[in-house]
């Protein structure tokens, strides 16, 4: 798409959040957002960066009634030498198109949306926080906007990208979380939309999530919707188990979200020579492994938390304390490596990083080129 | 709730749709809508009837990301003697609260929302169409509005009610529809949100719906998500089978929407002395019954279509032609009785009807009371 992106300057910029207080997750939003519309006639059009502000929709819009929506979640990281890095944005865009296909939403030009993300992040670079664990969360999403109540795919859509400076999802330190095996509520089932990043999956999960919090847990561990036997994933993370010297994770089966962090952890472990098994894992088998002291570590993976060690696991009346309730060695190594790559401190051997160039840098580069030209 | 409803008059009213053309479903909207907000501190508050128009939301609002939404669908009918009737609005409000409970949405005061619906319909009475099969569709819905990206129930909500003059959902005559047994995609599963009227269920259904249309069918017949064996419901209808002299319908199991029309058909049939069985019905058994000529009629039930006879049923390579592709006697009788009750032509023996009083009538009534008072 040779489309250009127009820029509408805001009259006034917002104050940045107080750096001395925890940022939390998704509470502050930057000065600008990206917006683009879709119609049958024009396809995706009118790409623009505009001041962050309310969007105005007909109350009959598809999104309010039939939930036609997809979203993505990724981050921009600030390096010590002030560069801005994105972690595998191509993977997020690829997944966004997979979600679109499931939700009858017209596909996007992945490269163009990456370009839009970079342009928006470059404009908002002052909003990228600097402290360890902090980053600029990037939330692209698409909503159906047709003002019509028949149950049909919308013929018009809006794609937006909003940015939020965030701390770590689970608070400011990497302390192990407590999770709870949910066996009443179900998140997704084969043939449904579990593998898509779409709002309905999260709506369905709220009840179990609040139940787990009431019971004193941080997150829910979902079981499959058919037999209520096999482990799927956590609230907003995929899940990994270190069993002796191997690492196991549930195989992608249509109802699990294919996490970008999950894929990266698998690649990284394989790169290190660790055996990774993507397989059907029954909760029963897992608890047996734990009884036999073979369950060494458990951790969740996701963009928000990167690696989140699990210290306690509850299933009915059985409780496992994992790695003595502490962060395991492998979890720590994965966390350090991934965040290291994301922050530019560790060499990006697997070619996961894309850099965001700011005008300043572009300007500097141009000047240098000019210089070179002059020198010639 | 002793809350009062404020009224904000529109500067200009819209032209009504051209009466000579089919209205379709959910394409036109009236001049006004009802709106009410929820916050933790104030509960549901600021009930108001305002000009129909765009709603303005923060792009981070829960509805756009985590799909916290419930809705209802009901109708106002115009009788020949110009009265306005609602069909079992209490049932819709009861279901709305069941949906709210599943989606972590604060409950509504059912009687108050019925009052709001009546007030809105009374104001918009000129929009209630008069032709057979036509009515004023009423769509109450609630959306989560918190501008925050953590996966948590919203703390603020908006309830809206919009109105749309509609024809019949399936076109203007009661011609039998063709349905297709879907065995790849799944709508809902036990433990999920299938029994709730929430947007995510419909988002998940679009793919199968468009597939069935491409294959030349009108709607999808969903099977259960666990075994893909048992019949659940149709796209936006519950389903009934007349087997010899009995009527069968899938039992409510947590993944089927408990239709108001479904409940009413069951009560009506029982009132007539017909045996109704709510049970697990395998598609295999159904097709066997059809082979043995025991399957006499098939019909869907829902607010939009009331009764929709099914003429053809396809499951893999098997096809059933039901009642010779025509509308069966029982389907016709149910349709005539239900629409008769709704239009005020048939006596409301089961006490399903609530009348909407307009200012005019209230005025007339008051005058009459005054007269009576004078006479005394
Ligand atoms: C349900 C669910 N599973 C897993 C993940 C992890 O995916 P990713 O690593 O791409 O962030 C997420 C998203 O953050 C999620 O929402
Ligand atoms: C999935 C689904 N099933 C069944 C029905 C029928 O319900 P009701 O009779 O209350 O309209 C509907 C709603 O219209 C529906 O959306």
UniProtKB/TrEMBL annotation, chains A, B:
MF terms in GO: branched-chain-amino-acid transaminase activity
Keyword Amino-acid biosynthesis attributed: yes
UniProt KW keywords: Amino-acid biosynthesis, Aminotransferase, Branched-chain amino acid biosynthesis, Pyridoxal phosphate, Transferase
Cofactor(s) the protein needs: pyridoxal 5'-phosphate
Keyword Transferase: yes
Residues covered by region (Disordered): 357-376
Pathway: Amino-acid biosynthesis; L-isoleucine biosynthesis; L-isoleucine from 2-oxobutanoate: step 4/4; Amino-acid biosynthesis; L-leucine biosynthesis; L-leucine from 3-methyl-2-oxobutanoate: step 4/4; Amino-acid biosynthesis; L-valine biosynthesis; L-valine from pyruvate: step 4/4
Coiled-coil spans in chain: none
Enzyme class: transferase
InterPro entries: Aminotrans_IV, Aminotrans_IV_CS, Aminotransferase-like, B_amino_transII, BCAT-like_C, BCAT-like_N, BCAT_family
Highest taxon, organism lineage: Bacteria
Reaction(s) the record says it catalyses: L-leucine + 2-oxoglutarate = 4-methyl-2-oxopentanoate + L-glutamate; L-isoleucine + 2-oxoglutarate = (S)-3-methyl-2-oxopentanoate + L-glutamate; L-valine + 2-oxoglutarate = 3-methyl-2-oxobutanoate + L-glutamate
EC number(s) recorded for this UniProt protein: 2.6.1.42
Pfam families linked to this entry: Aminotran_4
Similarity remark: Belongs to the class-IV pyridoxal-phosphate-dependent aminotransferase family.
NCBIfam families: ilvE_II (TIGR01123), PRK13357.1 (NF009897)
Entry protein name: Branched-chain-amino-acid aminotransferase
Species the sequence originates in: Sporolactobacillus mangiferae
